[in-house]
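Please, structure for the following, as tokens.
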Amino acid sequence: MESLNAEFIRQGLSQKERLLHLNASAKQMMKSLVDSTGTERLKQLEPLKK
């Protein structure tokens, strides 16, 4: 996200425009994580015992 913000600053986007773009990117990233099969596999792992 930080690198995206830096790129948006370089492109001259306003703070409001950057926030809108970053919010959309964050939503897409969260959707990808939730939809990922890897997430389900992680949930099925037993916790490490100390």
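The chain is about 75% helix and 0% strand. The chain has one domain: 2-36.
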